[in-house]
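Q: What does the assembled structure look like for these inputs?
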Amino acid sequence: MQIALVGIGKIALDQHVPALAASPDWDLAATVSRNGRVPGVEAFSSIDEMLATRQEIGTVSLCLPPVPRLAAAQAVLRAGRHLMLEKPPGATLAEVHALRDMAAAQGVSLFATWHSRMAQAVAAAKAWLVGRTIHEGRITWREDVRKWHPGQDWIFEAGGMGVFDPGINALSILTEILPEPVHLTAAELDVPANRQAPIAARLSLTGGITADFDFRQQGPQTWDMEFLTDAGPIALRMGGNILEIDGVQAEGRNSIMGEYPALYHRMARLVRNGSSDVDLVPMVLVADAFALARRTTADPFEF
Amino acid sequence: MQIALVGIGKIALDQHVPALAASPDWDLAATVSRNGRVPGVEAFSSIDEMLATRQEIGTVSLCLPPVPRLAAAQAVLRAGRHLMLEKPPGATLAEVHALRDMAAAQGVSLFATWHSRMAQAVAAAKAWLVGRTIHEGRITWREDVRKWHPGQDWIFEAGGMGVFDPGINALSILTEILPEPVHLTAAELDVPANRQAPIAARLSLTGGITADFDFRQQGPQTWDMEFLTDAGPIALRMGGNILEIDGVQAEGRNSIMGEYPALYHRMARLVRNGSSDVDLVPMVLVADAFALARRTTADPFEF
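A:
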C-alpha cells in the first residue's frame, strides 16, 4: 500500500523512514516537508498539492509537532485518506475528538499512535501483571532536553507540553500494562521563569503510583518503571524495552528500533480491517495534570 | 422516590432543597453534612452510615466541591445507589471516566449535571441555531468572586478551577446550543501571584468564538453570549435565561430558579429509564484550556 510521510525531521528520518523501508506492507510514495526529503521519493512542500496530485496514495502519516498537526490532519481526512498520527495526537483533546468523528464520517482509518506501547517488553509486562495486585509503582523518566530536543523552543511554549512530551510515553505504557484504570490525585509542575511549559513534573496516581518526569537529567538517562506486586517486584527499563522480574532481566533488549515497525504493521492491519485505534487515555492524564497541578517557578532555562 | 442530599451548604439550601420540596418525583429522605441540616429531615454526618442505615434511599445527590466529591461518589456507586453530581462532575476527567464505568458496572444511573443547560432560554436558542451559520460568537462571563464565593479559598487552590468554576457554565451552554462541536485554539490565564488557579481567562475557539471569563467584576454582573449569524444577531443573557433575537427579548425571564427543578426532573427520568447522562465536553474544554494556556501573573488576590 502506498503511504506519504509529512514532516521530514529527525523523528521521520531516524524512525519512520527505516521502518517503512523495511516494511512488507508499505511503499513510501511521497513526502511533504518544507526542507527535508528522502532520496528517491517524490517530495512536495504542500500537503494539499500532494493529496491532489497523488490520488493513488491512500494513507498519510504525520510527523509534525502537536500545534501545526491539526490543519494537516484535517486536510488528509477531508481528502478521504487513512491517517496515522505521532504522539500526542493533537494539542487538545477536543480537536482529537473532532478528528475521530471526521475519520468515522469519512469511513477511513485513524491511528493515534503511542510508539512506546510497542517497546519490546510492554506486552510481556502487561501479560505478567494480569491478575496480580500492584501495591506501589514508581515511574522515573529523566532525560536531558538539550540532547533529545536541541533548540526546540516550541516544546516549552504554551501547548508544547514541556516534560510531558517524553512523560506521555511513560503514561502510554502505564495505561497499557495496568490491569485497572488509574487517575491523578495530585500533580506538581516546575515551570522555568522564562517559559510556559514544565521542565519537571511529579504526579501521584491512584493505586500507589507516582511519576517523576524531569528534563534536566545529565549523565545517564533514565526511563524506568518499577512496581511492587503481590508476586514480587517487576520493572520495565529503557522505556519499556527491558523487563526485569525480581531483579533479573526476563525479556527485551536495549533498542527502540522495533517500535516504529510495529506501529506501521498495526496501521496496515487497521487499514485492511477498516478500523481505527484512538485511545486518548494518556492524553487525558496529561490534561488532568495541567488542570490539577500546583505550579512552582523554576530557574530560567536556555538551550 | 427517596433521595439523600450530601453537602448542605449554600447551593444545597438555595437550590437543591427548594427544588426537591416542589418536586412531584422526589422525597428528600436524608441529608449528610458536617454542619448543615434541613428541618424535618434525618441528618447524618457520615455518608457510609447513611448508606448503610437507609437502604430504602435509592438515589443520592452530591453538592460537594470537586476535590472531596470523588470518595463520596464512589461510596454511593459501590452501595448500588443512583448518583447525581453537581458541575463539574470531578477534579479530573479520568476520575469521571472511572465513575461512569463504575455506574455502568453497577447498573445504576449517573447524571453529571450542568445546571446552566437548564436555564430558561437555552433550548430555544439551540432550536433557533439549527441550520444557521455562526460567523462569530462572544462569551462574556464576568462576576465578583467575593460576592458569589466569599472566603472560599479552595476555588483558587490547585484543582479548584478558579474562574472556570463559573466559566464552565458558559461552556456547558455553548456546547449545548452550537450546531457543530468546537475546540480551543488558544487560551490565556491570569493567575494571582499568591494563588494557583486563574482569576481570569480569555479563550479562542474554532468558529470565531471567544470567551472572556473574569472573577474581578464589580458593579453589574455579566453572563452573556452574543452570536452573529447568517440570520442576524442572537444573544443569551443572564446565564442563558433570556434570549434576544435581533436585540429584542424573545424568551425567558431573569431567574435561575427553574434550573434545579429541571435537573431533578431529568434525574427522575434517567432513574426510571435505567439510563445515564455523562457529557464531559465542557470539562474537556477546561482541561484543554489548562494544557494549552499561556499564563500571566496577576496581582495577588485576597477575599
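The mean pLDDT of chain B is 96.
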